[in-house]
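Attaching the record inline, Q. Sequence:
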Amino acid sequence: MNIVHCTRMLEVEVHQRLRSLLRTEGIPPWPHHLTLARLVTRALRLGPSAVMEIGGLAGVQGHYRVGYLAAALLWPGAVVLVAPADIQRRWLQVELPRLRVWLQVDKPLYREQAPAGCTDGLLLLTPQRWLQELLTPASPLAQLPTLIDGLDDLEQWAETVLTQSRSPQDWDEWVWAQPPCAELIRETQIALTHSLLSHPPNPYEQWLLSETEQNWLQAVWPPPSPPGWVRWATLERHLAQFTLHCSPLWALAELASHWPQRPWVGLGLALGHLSLPGVTRFRFAPHPRDEVLHLYAPAHLPPPNHAGFYQAICQELHRLLPLAQGLVVILVEEQPLQTQLTVALAAEFGSRVQRERTALEENGILVTGWRFWQSHQERLPAPSLLVIPLLPIPPREQPLVTARIDSLRHQGRDWFREYLLPHTLAQLQRTVAPLRGGRVALLDSRVCHRSYGAQILTALEPVIRYSRLAAFGSG
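Structure, as predicted:
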């Protein structure tokens, strides 16, 4: 069967063909397959561009992909598909082969590079490759409809692509390239080394460069011409070496003039933190009955800045752990607290306790940071209990976080509600998504006592909140 070439009828065709497949083939059940497929097709055909938040287990398990891939296969022309490598593997090994057979479509597939003058087919790109193409003047990809999966990490993708870095080895190259300035370059390197080593250690060993340090660099590494970029350094203290970085303060703003000229659609688990003017937003919420989150959020614990916080968390963990019937995951990004909890729990539970490892016992206790958990959770069994001692508020020890807060403060804006809180909500939504229908313990009592606590609970809906452990254990 040929691809439909009448774009006005394309939404109807996608709907009918997909509905037929849902009746006859083993497509994972999800109540919004048809709606998503129609919305994607309409956005690509008429605009405006759209972002679609897929909440709950469907977003984690990828059931929603059938809808937008069907729309892409039936689109009368070339379509760009952007996603990280793990999603692309799923496309190529599972969804696309099945859909091409079911839909009787022989649309060609290309990875990373399409033939010159390509007017048909699916072009699969990694986020980094796609962004590099967009930043290239007169890139032909800007003229193609684009679908982006995993859009949650767009900000991080953009920062990675746009950030300029200079390693310790670059100083040698500067010396070789500018022999008359060799002495000045070495003096600058030594001065920066001493200055950075004078900073007290922090968990990230990263700092914004001071005005004095930036002045030292003027002759060696001039600042970028556009305003709104910041310079910072990563220190390897044990080697007395550092890497310099220059990053845009707001990476998405830097991309604003490079977005595809044709409509595009982005999909992800939690997208409220992304500032994308001019797009239409849709949200497919978790199932209100089958995906209720059972949340233990006690109000009696001291706040994180209280001297008794660590002891209170340890006591609460000893009450929580006996309730678990399988893997327990304790999410702690702060390195000192992560170390303290790992040591304390290992002293009592022995080898059951592991820190950021994937080889775990069936009833293991994994103490991990947020990034490690998000990167490896697909390879681990679903935890019977997820414990979050602290809200994942972006740490002010990170240079870009500090710079953004300072920028918003100088503009008289609410830096917490405009920047920190949206990122916290998105992180929580992504993290609890695999636990829908299961149990999560959020031990940061600011959820109960601060004005933004209601927003956090709303973001986690559907949720049943327990303030007493006895009710949580039997719920």
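The chain is about 40% helix and 15% strand. The mean pLDDT is 91.

More tomorrow.
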